[in-house]
Protein backbone atom coordinates (compact mmCIF):
# COMPACT_ATOMS: atom_id res chain seq x y z
CA UNK A 1 0.00 0.00 0.00
CA UNK A 2 1.25 3.45 -0.91
CA UNK A 3 1.36 5.98 1.92
CA UNK A 4 -0.04 9.03 0.15
CA UNK A 5 0.64 11.19 3.21
CA UNK A 6 4.36 10.50 2.99
CA UNK A 7 5.79 13.83 1.89
CA UNK A 8 9.19 12.25 1.28
CA UNK A 9 7.99 9.53 -1.06
CA UNK A 10 9.63 9.19 -4.47
CA UNK A 11 7.28 9.96 -7.36
CA UNK A 12 8.57 9.00 -10.78
CA UNK A 13 7.23 9.63 -14.26
CA UNK A 14 7.92 7.80 -17.49
CA UNK A 15 7.00 9.03 -20.96
CA UNK A 16 6.66 6.55 -23.81
CA UNK A 17 6.05 7.05 -27.52
CA UNK A 18 3.23 4.81 -28.74
CA UNK A 19 2.12 3.76 -32.21
CA UNK A 20 -0.82 5.89 -33.42
CA UNK A 21 -2.44 2.81 -35.00
CA UNK A 22 -1.75 0.25 -32.25
CA UNK A 23 -1.89 1.55 -28.68
CA UNK A 24 -0.23 -1.64 -27.42
CA UNK A 25 2.91 -1.00 -29.48
CA UNK A 26 5.50 1.20 -27.71
CA UNK A 27 8.28 2.71 -29.83
CA UNK A 28 10.42 3.61 -26.85
CA UNK A 29 10.91 6.12 -24.06
CA UNK A 30 10.61 9.83 -24.73
CA UNK A 31 13.60 11.48 -23.07
CA UNK A 32 14.38 15.14 -22.50
CA UNK A 33 11.05 16.07 -20.89
CA UNK A 34 11.38 19.30 -18.89
CA UNK A 35 9.19 18.39 -15.95
CA UNK A 36 8.94 21.83 -14.37
CA UNK A 37 7.38 23.12 -17.61
CA UNK A 38 4.94 20.24 -18.12
CA UNK A 39 1.47 19.46 -16.77
CA UNK A 40 -1.58 17.20 -17.10
CA UNK A 41 -5.18 18.23 -16.56
CA UNK A 42 -8.54 16.46 -16.47
CA UNK A 43 -12.15 17.64 -16.19
CA UNK A 44 -15.38 15.76 -15.56
CA UNK A 45 -17.51 18.21 -17.53
CA UNK A 46 -15.10 18.77 -20.41
CA UNK A 47 -15.87 17.06 -23.72
CA UNK A 48 -12.44 15.48 -24.19
CA UNK A 49 -11.88 14.75 -20.44
CA UNK A 50 -8.10 15.24 -20.32
CA UNK A 51 -5.24 17.19 -21.91
CA UNK A 52 -1.72 18.38 -21.11
CA UNK A 53 1.51 19.99 -22.24
CA UNK A 54 5.06 18.64 -22.32
CA UNK A 55 8.21 20.62 -22.97
CA UNK A 56 10.83 18.36 -24.57
CA UNK A 57 14.48 19.31 -24.99
CA UNK A 58 16.55 17.66 -27.74
CA UNK A 59 15.57 15.46 -30.67
CA UNK A 60 14.01 12.51 -28.86
CA UNK A 61 10.47 13.21 -30.00
CA UNK A 62 9.27 10.89 -32.81
CA UNK A 63 6.77 12.93 -34.74
CA UNK A 64 3.34 11.34 -35.19
CA UNK A 65 3.54 9.03 -32.20
CA UNK A 66 1.19 9.12 -29.22
CA UNK A 67 2.58 9.96 -25.78
CA UNK A 68 1.84 7.76 -22.75
CA UNK A 69 2.45 9.12 -19.25
CA UNK A 70 3.00 6.62 -16.42
CA UNK A 71 3.35 7.50 -12.73
CA UNK A 72 5.03 5.24 -10.18
CA UNK A 73 5.50 5.51 -6.41
CA UNK A 74 6.40 2.88 -3.79
CA UNK A 75 3.78 0.16 -4.19
CA UNK A 76 2.03 2.01 -7.01
CA UNK A 77 1.98 2.14 -10.80
CA UNK A 78 -0.63 3.96 -12.86
CA UNK A 79 -0.90 4.99 -16.50
CA UNK A 80 -2.18 8.56 -16.26
CA UNK A 81 -3.00 8.95 -19.93
CA UNK A 82 -2.21 8.22 -23.57
CA UNK A 83 -2.36 11.33 -25.72
CA UNK A 84 -2.48 12.54 -29.29
CA UNK A 85 0.02 15.33 -29.94
CA UNK A 86 -1.93 18.17 -31.51
CA UNK A 87 0.95 20.63 -31.82
CA UNK A 88 4.72 20.34 -31.58
CA UNK A 89 5.91 23.91 -32.10
CA UNK A 90 9.44 24.57 -30.92
CA UNK A 91 12.16 27.14 -30.40
CA UNK A 92 15.94 27.08 -30.26
CA UNK A 93 17.13 28.06 -26.77
CA UNK A 94 20.82 28.33 -25.78
CA UNK A 95 21.94 26.18 -28.67
CA UNK A 96 19.34 23.39 -28.45
CA UNK A 97 15.77 22.88 -29.57
CA UNK A 98 12.80 22.77 -27.23
CA UNK A 99 9.42 21.57 -28.42
CA UNK A 100 6.12 22.29 -26.73
CA UNK A 101 3.97 19.21 -27.20
CA UNK A 102 0.26 19.91 -26.83
CA UNK A 103 -1.30 16.71 -25.50
CA UNK A 104 -4.87 15.96 -26.54
CA UNK A 105 -7.00 13.01 -25.46
CA UNK A 106 -8.14 10.27 -27.83
CA UNK A 107 -11.60 11.87 -27.63
CA UNK A 108 -10.13 15.04 -29.11
CA UNK A 109 -9.24 13.01 -32.19
CA UNK A 110 -12.92 12.09 -32.51
CA UNK A 111 -13.94 15.75 -32.22
CA UNK A 112 -11.80 16.72 -35.24
CA UNK A 113 -13.13 13.76 -37.28
CA UNK A 114 -16.37 14.48 -39.15
CA UNK A 115 -18.84 12.23 -40.90
CA UNK A 116 -18.10 12.01 -44.63
CA UNK A 117 -21.66 10.86 -45.27
CA UNK A 118 -24.91 10.46 -43.31
CA UNK A 119 -24.76 8.01 -40.40
CA UNK A 120 -28.11 6.33 -39.81
CA UNK A 121 -29.50 4.29 -36.96
CA UNK A 122 -32.46 2.46 -38.52
CA UNK A 123 -35.87 2.20 -36.93
CA UNK A 124 -35.62 -0.62 -34.40
CA UNK A 125 -31.85 -0.20 -34.25
CA UNK A 126 -29.87 0.05 -31.00
CA UNK A 127 -27.70 2.89 -29.77
CA UNK A 128 -25.00 0.60 -28.39
CA UNK A 129 -24.56 -1.18 -31.72
CA UNK A 130 -24.25 2.20 -33.42
CA UNK A 131 -21.60 3.30 -30.90
CA UNK A 132 -19.58 0.14 -31.50
CA UNK A 133 -19.87 0.49 -35.28
CA UNK A 134 -18.79 4.12 -35.24
CA UNK A 135 -15.79 3.50 -32.97
CA UNK A 136 -14.70 0.48 -35.01
CA UNK A 137 -14.89 2.53 -38.22
CA UNK A 138 -12.45 5.00 -36.63
CA UNK A 139 -10.07 2.28 -35.45
CA UNK A 140 -10.62 3.10 -31.79
CA UNK A 141 -10.27 0.47 -29.09
CA UNK A 142 -13.12 0.56 -26.60
CA UNK A 143 -14.05 -0.83 -23.18
CA UNK A 144 -17.69 -1.32 -22.20
CA UNK A 145 -18.58 -1.26 -18.52
CA UNK A 146 -22.14 -2.46 -17.82
CA UNK A 147 -23.54 -0.26 -20.61
CA UNK A 148 -27.25 0.29 -21.02
CA UNK A 149 -28.98 0.45 -24.39
CA UNK A 150 -31.76 2.23 -26.24
CA UNK A 151 -33.89 1.02 -29.15
CA UNK A 152 -35.01 3.67 -31.62
CA UNK A 153 -38.70 3.80 -32.51
CA UNK A 154 -37.91 5.79 -35.64
CA UNK A 155 -34.80 6.22 -37.76
CA UNK A 156 -32.14 8.60 -36.45
CA UNK A 157 -29.97 10.28 -39.08
CA UNK A 158 -26.78 12.20 -38.34
CA UNK A 159 -25.87 14.48 -41.26
CA UNK A 160 -22.66 14.69 -43.23
CA UNK A 161 -20.16 16.95 -41.47
CA UNK A 162 -21.29 16.15 -37.93
CA UNK A 163 -18.36 15.65 -35.55
CA UNK A 164 -17.96 11.98 -34.62
CA UNK A 165 -17.57 12.89 -30.95
CA UNK A 166 -20.85 14.81 -31.05
CA UNK A 167 -22.62 11.77 -32.51
CA UNK A 168 -21.15 9.51 -29.81
CA UNK A 169 -22.27 11.88 -27.06
CA UNK A 170 -25.78 11.92 -28.48
CA UNK A 171 -25.92 8.12 -28.72
CA UNK A 172 -24.61 7.81 -25.15
CA UNK A 173 -27.17 10.32 -23.86
CA UNK A 174 -29.98 8.39 -25.56
CA UNK A 175 -28.83 5.08 -24.07
CA UNK A 176 -27.96 6.33 -20.57
CA UNK A 177 -24.19 5.88 -20.84
CA UNK A 178 -21.19 8.07 -20.10
CA UNK A 179 -18.37 8.46 -22.63
CA UNK A 180 -14.81 8.73 -21.35
CA UNK A 181 -11.26 7.57 -22.05
CA UNK A 182 -8.93 5.47 -19.92
CA UNK A 183 -5.22 5.84 -19.27
CA UNK A 184 -4.19 3.47 -22.06
CA UNK A 185 -6.10 5.46 -24.66
CA UNK A 186 -9.18 3.24 -24.91
CA UNK A 187 -12.59 4.88 -25.25
CA UNK A 188 -14.83 3.83 -22.36
CA UNK A 189 -18.61 3.52 -22.53
CA UNK A 190 -20.40 2.68 -19.31
CA UNK A 191 -23.74 3.06 -17.58
CA UNK A 192 -24.13 6.57 -16.25
CA UNK A 193 -24.10 6.63 -12.45
CA UNK A 194 -25.04 9.77 -10.54
CA UNK A 195 -22.06 11.02 -8.50
CA UNK A 196 -24.21 11.06 -5.37
CA UNK A 197 -24.62 7.28 -5.71
CA UNK A 198 -20.89 6.55 -5.89
CA UNK A 199 -18.66 5.53 -2.99
CA UNK A 200 -15.77 7.88 -2.05
CA UNK A 201 -12.26 6.57 -2.81
CA UNK A 202 -10.58 8.36 0.07
CA UNK A 203 -10.93 11.09 2.70
CA UNK A 204 -9.16 14.43 2.62
CA UNK A 205 -9.07 15.83 6.16
CA UNK A 206 -8.25 19.54 6.36
CA UNK A 207 -7.36 19.19 10.05
CA UNK A 208 -5.08 16.16 9.70
CA UNK A 209 -1.59 17.23 10.87
CA UNK A 210 -0.16 14.66 8.47
CA UNK A 211 -2.54 15.57 5.67
CA UNK A 212 -1.58 16.28 2.11
CA UNK A 213 -3.30 19.66 1.65
CA UNK A 214 -0.73 22.35 0.96
CA UNK A 215 -1.76 25.83 2.07
CA UNK A 216 -5.29 27.15 2.15
CA UNK A 217 -8.59 25.94 0.79
CA UNK A 218 -11.01 28.17 -1.08
CA UNK A 219 -14.78 27.86 -1.17
CA UNK A 220 -17.22 28.95 -3.88
CA UNK A 221 -20.98 28.92 -3.38
CA UNK A 222 -23.91 30.46 -5.24
CA UNK A 223 -26.00 30.79 -2.04
CA UNK A 224 -26.60 34.53 -2.53
CA UNK A 225 -27.23 34.15 -6.28
CA UNK A 226 -29.96 31.52 -6.10
CA UNK A 227 -33.20 32.52 -7.91
CA UNK A 228 -36.21 34.12 -6.28
CA UNK A 229 -38.40 33.05 -9.14
CA UNK A 230 -38.23 31.28 -12.48
CA UNK A 231 -40.09 32.35 -15.61
CA UNK A 232 -40.66 30.19 -18.68
CA UNK A 233 -41.96 31.70 -21.92
CA UNK A 234 -42.98 30.03 -25.18
CA UNK A 235 -44.37 31.74 -28.30
CA UNK A 236 -46.81 29.56 -30.19
CA UNK A 237 -47.11 30.68 -33.79
CA UNK A 238 -45.55 33.55 -35.73
CA UNK A 239 -46.04 37.28 -36.20
CA UNK A 240 -49.16 39.02 -34.99
CA UNK A 241 -50.99 35.72 -34.58
CA UNK A 242 -48.46 34.33 -32.07
CA UNK A 243 -49.61 33.79 -28.51
CA UNK A 244 -47.30 33.73 -25.51
CA UNK A 245 -47.57 30.92 -23.00
CA UNK A 246 -45.88 32.06 -19.81
CA UNK A 247 -45.54 30.54 -16.33
CA UNK A 248 -43.81 31.66 -13.14
CA UNK A 249 -42.59 29.76 -10.09
CA UNK A 250 -41.58 31.61 -6.89
CA UNK A 251 -39.77 30.51 -3.74
CA UNK A 252 -41.61 30.40 -0.43
CA UNK A 253 -41.74 33.62 1.61
CA UNK A 254 -39.49 32.18 4.29
CA UNK A 255 -36.76 31.18 1.84
CA UNK A 256 -33.35 32.87 2.08
CA UNK A 257 -33.71 33.62 -1.66
CA UNK A 258 -36.96 35.56 -1.25
CA UNK A 259 -36.99 39.31 -1.77
CA UNK A 260 -38.09 39.84 1.81
CA UNK A 261 -35.08 37.95 3.19
CA UNK A 262 -32.48 39.22 0.75
CA UNK A 263 -33.71 42.65 -0.27
CA UNK A 264 -33.55 42.00 -4.00
CA UNK A 265 -34.94 39.64 -6.62
CA UNK A 266 -33.07 37.19 -8.84
CA UNK A 267 -35.13 35.96 -11.79
CA UNK A 268 -34.16 32.92 -13.82
CA UNK A 269 -35.69 33.40 -17.30
CA UNK A 270 -35.94 30.75 -19.98
CA UNK A 271 -37.38 31.35 -23.47
CA UNK A 272 -38.29 28.04 -25.09
CA UNK A 273 -38.06 27.32 -28.80
CA UNK A 274 -39.94 24.01 -28.44
CA UNK A 275 -42.56 22.80 -25.99
CA UNK A 276 -44.89 19.82 -26.05
CA UNK A 277 -47.71 19.87 -25.23
CA UNK A 278 -48.20 23.58 -25.93
CA UNK A 279 -50.13 24.29 -22.74
CA UNK A 280 -49.83 26.51 -19.70
CA UNK A 281 -49.65 23.40 -17.54
CA UNK A 282 -46.54 22.21 -19.36
CA UNK A 283 -44.97 25.66 -19.05
CA UNK A 284 -45.69 25.67 -15.33
CA UNK A 285 -44.08 22.23 -14.90
CA UNK A 286 -40.97 23.53 -16.61
CA UNK A 287 -40.90 26.70 -14.52
CA UNK A 288 -41.22 24.62 -11.33
CA UNK A 289 -38.35 22.39 -12.50
CA UNK A 290 -36.20 25.39 -13.40
CA UNK A 291 -36.71 26.89 -9.95
CA UNK A 292 -36.09 23.55 -8.23
CA UNK A 293 -32.82 23.02 -10.12
CA UNK A 294 -31.72 26.57 -9.38
CA UNK A 295 -32.51 26.15 -5.68
CA UNK A 296 -29.85 23.48 -5.16
CA UNK A 297 -26.88 25.26 -3.69
CA UNK A 298 -23.70 24.90 -5.72
CA UNK A 299 -20.75 24.32 -3.38
CA UNK A 300 -17.22 23.85 -4.72
CA UNK A 301 -13.89 23.57 -2.95
CA UNK A 302 -10.48 24.27 -4.46
CA UNK A 303 -7.33 22.97 -2.82
CA UNK A 304 -3.75 22.07 -3.66
CA UNK A 305 -2.31 18.79 -2.47
CA UNK A 306 0.64 16.51 -3.05
CA UNK A 307 -0.35 14.05 -5.78
CA UNK A 308 -3.23 11.76 -4.80
CA UNK A 309 -4.61 8.86 -6.87
CA UNK A 310 -7.61 10.90 -8.02
CA UNK A 311 -9.07 11.59 -11.46
CA UNK A 312 -12.11 13.34 -12.85
CA UNK A 313 -15.28 11.52 -11.80
CA UNK A 314 -13.80 10.05 -8.62
CA UNK A 315 -15.49 10.68 -5.28
CA UNK A 316 -13.87 11.89 -2.05
CA UNK A 317 -15.00 12.78 1.43
CA UNK A 318 -13.78 16.24 2.40
CA UNK A 319 -13.57 16.66 6.18
CA UNK A 320 -13.98 20.33 7.12
CA UNK A 321 -13.15 21.05 10.80
CA UNK A 322 -14.86 24.42 11.20
CA UNK A 323 -16.82 27.21 9.55
CA UNK A 324 -20.29 27.39 8.05
CA UNK A 325 -19.77 24.15 6.10
CA UNK A 326 -18.23 22.15 8.95
CA UNK A 327 -18.55 18.39 8.62
CA UNK A 328 -18.00 15.58 6.16
CA UNK A 329 -18.73 16.74 2.61
CA UNK A 330 -19.22 14.19 -0.16
CA UNK A 331 -17.60 15.57 -3.30
CA UNK A 332 -16.99 14.81 -6.96
CA UNK A 333 -13.54 15.46 -8.42
CA UNK A 334 -14.66 18.04 -10.97
CA UNK A 335 -11.17 18.80 -12.26
CA UNK A 336 -7.52 18.26 -11.43
CA UNK A 337 -4.32 19.91 -12.67
CA UNK A 338 -1.01 18.13 -12.05
CA UNK A 339 2.31 19.99 -12.12
CA UNK A 340 4.69 17.27 -13.31
CA UNK A 341 7.69 19.09 -11.87
CA UNK A 342 6.52 19.17 -8.26
CA UNK A 343 3.65 16.64 -8.43
CA UNK A 344 1.46 19.29 -6.85
CA UNK A 345 -2.17 18.75 -7.70
CA UNK A 346 -4.79 21.51 -7.82
CA UNK A 347 -8.18 19.90 -7.34
CA UNK A 348 -11.69 21.33 -7.67
CA UNK A 349 -14.26 19.35 -5.67
CA UNK A 350 -17.97 19.75 -6.28
CA UNK A 351 -20.38 18.65 -3.56
CA UNK A 352 -22.77 15.97 -4.77
CA UNK A 353 -25.67 17.73 -3.03
CA UNK A 354 -25.25 20.42 -5.70
CA UNK A 355 -26.59 18.04 -8.36
CA UNK A 356 -25.00 16.90 -11.59
CA UNK A 357 -25.05 18.76 -14.90
CA UNK A 358 -25.45 15.42 -16.70
CA UNK A 359 -28.66 14.42 -14.87
What keywords describe this structure?
359 residues, 5 helices, mainly beta, three-stranded mixed β-sheet, 14-stranded mixed β-sheet
Write a brief caption for the model.
This protein has 359 residues and is mostly beta strands. The protein has helices spanning 106-111, 127-137, 164-175, 259-262, 280-294, and strands at residues 12-18, 26-29, 33-43, 50-57, 66-73, 76-87, 90-93, 96-104, 119-121, 142-145, 156-158, 177-181, 187-191, 202-205, 213-221, 229-236, 243-250, 267-272, 299-306, 315-320, 327-339, 344-351. The chain is globular and about 70 Å long.
**What radius of gyration results from the CA coordinates?**
24 Å
pLDDT averaged residue by residue? 95
| Strand proportion | 35-45%
Succession of helices and strands: EEEEEEEEHEHEEHEEEEEEHEHEEEE
- Shape field: globular
Largest beta sheet, briefly?
14 strands, mixed
Distance between the termini: 35 Å
Total helical segments: 5
* Percent in helix: 10-25%
The helix-and-strand class reads mainly beta
Task: Kindly describe this structure.
The structure is a single chain. The protein is 13% helix and 43% strand. The protein has 359 residues and is mainly β. It starts with 11 loop residues before the first strand and ends in an 8-residue tail after the last strand.
SSE blueprint and pairings:
Layout (H helix, E strand, L loop, with lengths): L11 E7 L7 E4 L3 E11 L6 E8 L8 E8 L2 E12 L2 E4 L2 E9 L1 H6 L7 E3 L5 H11 L4 E4 L10 E3 L5 H12 L1 E5 L5 E5 L10 E4 L7 E9 L7 E8 L6 E8 L8 H4 L4 E6 L7 H15 L4 E8 L8 E6 L6 E13 L4 E8 L8
Parallel strand pairs: 10-13, 14-20, 16-18
Antiparallel strand pairs: 1-2, 1-5, 3-4, 3-21, 4-8, 5-6, 6-8, 7-8, 9-11, 12-13, 15-19, 16-17, 19-22, 20-21, 21-22
Helix pairs in contact: 2-3
